[in-house]
Design goal:
The complex is a heterodimer. Chain A is of the alpha/beta class. Chain A folds into two domains: 174 residues, P-loop containing nucleotide triphosphate hydrolases (Rossmann fold, 3-Layer(aba) Sandwich); 73 residues, no CATH class. Helix content of chain A is 32%, strand content 28%. Chain B has two domains: 105 residues, no CATH class; 163 residues, ABC transporter involved in vitamin B12 uptake, BtuC. Chain B has a two-stranded antiparallel sheet with strand order 1-2. Chain B contains 15 helices and two strands. The longest helix of chain B is centred in the first third of the chain and has 32 residues. The chains are: A alpha/beta, B mainly alpha. Chains A and B meet through helix 2, strand 6 and helix 3 of A and helix 1, strand 2, helix 10 and helix 11 of B. Chain A: InterPro entries: AAA+_ATPase, ABC_transporter-like_ATP-bd, ABC_transporter-like_CS, P-loop_NTPase, Siderophore_ABC-ATPase. Chain A: Keywords: ATP-binding, Cell membrane, Ion transport, Iron, Iron transport, Membrane, Nucleotide-binding, Transport. Chain A: Its main location: membrane.
């Protein structure tokens, strides 16, 4: 297992409120990493530190052994794409225009479009299945369609890494599975995917590498089959449960008692 | 059925709404509506400008105007009195429109424009202080206006900052600060020497009366530089409209960008205020009208500049004609137009909650 992206002994927090102390995590290249844990355990904070939305009070997030805070802003944005929980769609923007905004880190001052830019936008719209409504306004779309548009935007950024903060929230079950299947497909095409997921069973089914967090620290990490047992679920979620094999995928499935 | 129809229409809609301009292997995409807006606004500016050159205590004939413009038939009235006023309307309107668009982007709120959140009034305070207390000349007045605007911006920002920045809170606090600063301005005028007070009051609601070419040299230079600077950062400004998280994760240096936006926005507002006084409501209305005319996403700068220029030019003509031969301060007209717009906007905001 190789790793380019790591958090090294990072202490993360907002002002006086410390979320994580001396946390270390290596993100395996080319894998689908899912971060799970109870509300407020520091999952989103960790993701925000990776994309430099939060500067560690101590320690560093490194990419190829260089601290990400030393990288130029657009340079980092050509490596890591991030989909937050609360993106804003400007009033009146169309799907195509929003997806095109993903090309920002690849463009110079005058925002001239290269053939690469045009190709990346077209491909991202096909991959995320949004080209059918490319010229409609984002505000008119359903929640599931809108989330796919945002995924298309981060895909157009054309980065080796995709970081997503609870991408399946507010989606119905069909769209949740479609999105997770899309992320798996992207992983198969060679991208590294890191997603904060709410649903532990979905995380077990789709992730190659599961990271369970509690109180700002990593409680366990590894393949779901190796790390998920009743003791871990009791420890992390404070929930008594029985672990059975998922009848479809064979991965661990948590059934609360 | 509708889905299938949509798919077929898509390429056509795309081709008609955007023009692709090839530039050496690369391409520059322009919205058709933006081109239409540029042409429309330039025509409107020329038309209004022509009326502005013709209108006065006596109407000039088109022949006289052309004669004055080409220098074949020199006319001091047209070339030295009326022309600078027309140019000032365009220049200041564009500056105010851009300042409004900048602050509406910063606050992510259509009411977050510099005139509403007290920056015009603050710039005017700075100008008044220089005039009354330090008896300064026009260049120092301009510096006073910029300093006043920046201090007010810092005040509004620090009062509204708690747990991050909320656009709506900033607007509400800005409205309160605006009221207080306006009261301070009135007090300054009352305490001032009679001559200074008379000059200041004529300026109180924003006026282009008596502007000549000399008054325009410094503002023109300053505004041209500021608009160029922000024009080069326009794509970063549009990118920031996607929220702080995506702005940063796609490579916008957000803190630096915000500082630049505040400096340019305050700079434009204060420059106009130093020469013409606080002209209200152009900065509030122009970006939103421009956005709707251009059918562009977010609050773009170019439509705001064009609409602002036409709006102020039009308002200044109305101000001259309404109670002729008495020329009203243009600010009275923009306030009358903009006040109605603000009421509508407030009602919209309240309904949305």
């Amino acid at each position: 297992m190789t790793t380019r992206l790591s958090a090294r002994d990072v202490t993360l927090g907002y002002g006086d409120r410390v979320v994580s102390t001396r946390l270390t995590l290596d993100v395996p290249d080319g894998a689908f990493t899912a971060v799970v844990g109870p509300n407020g355990c520091g999952k989103s904070t960790l993701l925000r530190a990776f994309v430099r939305l939060l500067t560690p009070d101590e320690g560093a997030v490194t990419l190829d052994s260089r601290s990400v805070s030393d990288l130029p802003a657009k340079g980092l944005a050509r490596e890591l794409a991030f989909l937050p929980q609360d993106p804003l769609a400007p009033e009146g923007i169309t799907v195509r225009q929003l997806v095109a905004r993903g090309r920002y880190p690849h463009q110079s001052l005058l925002a001239l479009w290269t053939p690469d830019d045009e190709r990346a936008v077209a491909e991202a719209m096909v991959t995320a299945e949004v080209e059918d409504f490319a010229d409609r306004q984002v505000a008119e779309l359903s929640g599931g369609q809108r989330q796919r548009v945002w995924v298309a935007m981060v895909l157009a950024q054309d980065t080796p890494y995709l970081l997503l903060d609870e991408p399946t929230s507010f989606l119905d079950i069909t769209h949740q599975y479609r999105l997770l299947a899309l992320l798996s497909r992207l992983r198969n095409e060679g991208r590294t995917v890191i997603a904060v997921l709410h649903d532990i069973n979905q995380a077990c089914r789709f992730a190659d590498h599961l990271v369970a967090m509690k109180d700002g620290r990593v409680a366990a990490e590894g393949a779901a089959a190796d790390v998920v047992d009743a003791a871990l679920i009791k420890d992390v979620f404070d929930l008594p449960s029985v672990i059975v094999a998922d009848p479809v995928s064979g991965t661990p499935m948590v059934v609360p008692e | 059925m509708t889905g299938a129809q949509k798919t077929r229409e898509t390429p056509v809609a795309e081709q008609t709404s955007t023009v692709r301009v090839p530039v050496g292997g690369r391409a520059w995409f322009v919205q058709r509506r933006i081109i239409g807006l540029v042409v429309g606004c330039v025509v409107a500016m020329l038309g209004l400008g022509f009326v502005g050159l013709s209108y006065g205590t006596s109407w000039a004939t088109p022949g006289e105007v052309f004669g004055a413009l080409t220098g074949l038939e020199p006319s001091v009235v047209i070339a030295e009195w009326r022309a600078p006023r027309v140019v000032a309307g365009i220049l200041f309107g564009a500056a105010l429109g851009v300042a409004g668009a900048i602050f509406q982007n910063l606050t992510r709120n259509p009411m977050g424009s510099p005139d509403i959140i007290g920056l015009d009034a603050g710039a005017y305070t700075g100008a008044l202080l220089v005039m009354t207390v330090f008896a300064g000349a026009s260049v120092t007045v301009a510096f006073g206006a910029v300093a006043g605007g920046l201090v007010t911006a810092a005040l509004v920002y620090s009062l509204s900052r708690s747990n991050g920045l909320s656009g709506m809170r900033l607007v509400v606090i800005g409205i309160a600060v605006n009221a207080m600063v306006t009261a301070l301005n009135n007090w300054l005028v009352l305490r001032a020497e009679l001559e200074v007070a008379m000059a200041a009051v004529g300026w109180n609601s924003g006026s282009l009366n008596g502007i000549d070419w000399e008054d325009l040299v410094v503002p023109f230079t300053v505004i041209a530089v500021l608009l160029t600077v922000i024009g080069l950062r326009a794509s970063a400004l549009q990118q920031s409209a996607l929220g702080d998280s995506i702005a940063v994760s796609t490579g916008v240096p957000l803190e630096r960008q915000r500082l630049l936006m505040v400096l340019v926005g305050v700079g434009c507002t204060a420059t106009v205020t130093a020469v013409a006084g606080p002209v209200m409501f152009v900065a509030l209305a122009a970006p939103q009208i421009g956005r709707r005319l251009a059918k562009a996403p977010g609050v773009p700068l170019l439509p705001a500049a064009l609409t602002g220029a036409v709006l102020l030019q039009f308002a200044d003509l109305v101000a001259q004609m309404l109670l002729a031969p008495v020329s009203l301060p243009v600010g009275v007209v923009t306030t009358a137009i903009g006040g109605g717009y603000l009421i509508w906007l407030l009602a919209q905001e309240v309904r949305r909650r």
